[in-house]
Amino acid sequence: MALDMTEWGNFLSAMTLALVRVSGMVAFAPFFSSTALPIRAKAVFVGAVAWLVAPLVATLPHGGATLSLQAIVGELAVGLVYGLSLALLNEMLIFAGQIAGLQFSFSLVNLLDPESAIQTPLLGDLFQVMGTLVVIAAGLDRILLASVLRSFRVVPLGSYAFAAPTALAIVRAAGGIFLAALELAAPVLAATMLVEIAVALLGKLSPQLPVMSLTVPLKTLTGFVILLGSLALWPRFIEARFAGLLDMAERLIAAPRATAGLGG
Length: 264
What we know:
mainly alpha
């Protein structure tokens, strides 16, 4: 009976630590963090995942399924590394939408973003919704969950130590969202700029031409046509950025343990 109680205690400890790790990812990662998903559904999902993986992760070598403040903080850090790294994908989509909205002359058209509860440009919300659809259709949410589950083997329970270089790497990666957003909005940006140049030249050739009344509708129509044409490239672009961010998160999680192993 004492042995059974000990095993039950180890199971509960492992389940609690696994729940903390998965919760950190669900709090910020794309799709999982969506406010469209009820909080109770998220809680049930996290609890079910922790219940299923607890018997396996508790028996992995070099793992300490013992509840302590250090272990809980370490497990939360693992989840946050995943969540914050992949959250950069949403920020890239919102920023790309802001760039496109400025070229569409929609800079003053704002909506309340349900994700961040702040006002964002119309096209920012549109880009974020389309990005979420790509994530779901391509099964990237399942790939992220599988990577989190594999992390229990790379970083067993209670063995992760958050380091300052990890946070610095995430901050540096955040700077890359500006370049990625420009790449995503580049077709629309280039087309609308060409329209502006063409209308300006026509205005020089024919001063009687109502340039101001032609620029906005021409830019908007051209931008929408180019945007519709570039949607075919979105899945490949978003999948590549998602894969890069996921690889970065996996390296950041494995790096402290590898460094500790070399130091030992």
